[in-house]
Structures are given as C-alpha cells and as structure tokens.
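Worked problem 6 (solution included).
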Amino acid sequence: MSSTGESLYREVKNCISGEFKHLYGDHVHILKDPWALTLLASMSSPQVAQPDLDPLIRLLYERLLGYVVSAEFPLEFREVPTRMAGYSFGGNLVSSATRVVVLDLLRAGMMPAHYSFLSLLRILPNRHIRVDHLCVERVTDRAKKVRGSDVLAAKVGGNIDNTIVFLPDPMGATGNSVKAAVHYYRAHGLGKAAKWIIANLIVTPEHIEALSSLRKEENVVLYAFRLDRGGSEQEVFSSVPGKHRGRERGLNEVDYIIPGAGGIGELLNNTEK
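Solution. The predicted structure is:
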C-alpha cells in the first residue's frame, strides 16, 4: 500500500477557528459561531418545547464537541487505507489511545451526554469511552438563593485516571454542580483526570469564576457558545469580558441566567410547570 506523499495533513495541530476576546484566562473559550448562536436563539424562544428542543440540543452539542475534540484531544499520525485500492490517506488524526469519560449530570445533562457519547464512538474505540451518571441537586436557602450542590446518587463505571472527563451541561450558572462533580470523584478515591472539559451552551461570569477556582486542584477548561452578563451595569456591557470581574453579573436573585434560556432541564424532560 502506498501513500500519495501529501504532507499537508501532517501539519494539522490542535486549534479553534474563532473565539471572543476576554480576560478570564486561556482556559476559557467563548466560541464565535453564528450558526450556534442562531440555534441558541431558537432554543431560548418561549415557543420552543418538546419535541422541537431535543434536535436543537443535539445539533448544538455535536458542533460544540467538534470544537473541543479539534482543540483538546491528542493527535497521532496514521495511515488509513482508502477505497482506492493500494492507496492510503495519511494525516494527524485524533489519537485512538484517547480515553474519555462522558459525565451526565442529571437532568439537563442527560441528552447532551448521550449525544456526545454517540459522536465520540465515531472516532474512538468503544472500549475507550464510557458514560458516568451523577444526580446533582442545587442546595438553596429560604430566599431560593443557591448555596451549593449535593450529589444525591451516582452510577460510576470506574476511576478516571489519565482520562479526559467531558462534562456537557447546557446552562453554566453558578458552577456549583461542576464543583460537586469534581469533589465527588476525589472524595471517593476515583483517581485524577488528565483534563476536565466543561462544555456549556451558555455561561455566566459567576460560573467562570467558580471553574477558575477549581484550577488550583484540577486541569479544568471551559467551552461555551454564549456568555450572558444580563445583570450587569451598562459600563460592563461595553467592556471586554473579564475586565470588571467583580462587577459582572449573569444571574438573577434566584440564580437563573439572565437572559439565559429558562429551565432547560424542565423542558428536556417535559416537566415545566
């Protein structure tokens, strides 16, 4: 079998096609994607309900996962036979040795985790991918302000040593659910991931700050399509994200995202009141 000798695809490196400038740090990626932003606008519409929401979530997470894989997953040079007998395609492709744990945070994370798992099966050996499940619930005070998160139940398939943990959760509001998930694996002696990739559709400055604090303990990176700072002053809106970190606000009085997309977990599960 012979290769064509094409060297172009040996030059492939981890990359992102475009993202918004900010001052949060190089672990935060707010992607500049008109396709995704248009889908998010549709998803956030008051008219959207099941069964129309589910395909929007799938499209958005397939696209977001594509960015994440292109930027974060290790690569290796491989020669792959083609249907043109005797010829092969050679290039830097996603390493087949990559191990991934897709983490489902019930309940908004159920469908994103499932669709991400199916997409990863297209590029990695199935023995290298698994799905873990955590039931995480907000802890609120009498004023319905979020004070943390508790893991109520878990179904975990093993340790996470040297894996990429991919956590797809549509709304990144307070960051407490992610912190609870990271602490659960540590508290139960389930190893240390090579990298935690938090994949949200919409995030707030508060969520970003919570994840940034986790970087003292774990290698955490964040990918999202939209940053919402709807509770901020006008001066903040006209500034580069992260410039006024102490004054940026993306949550209302009960810690829902402004403008956000409403209760995605309720909508996905058809339990909206």
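Discussion: Residues 104 and 129 are 13 Å apart (CA to CA).
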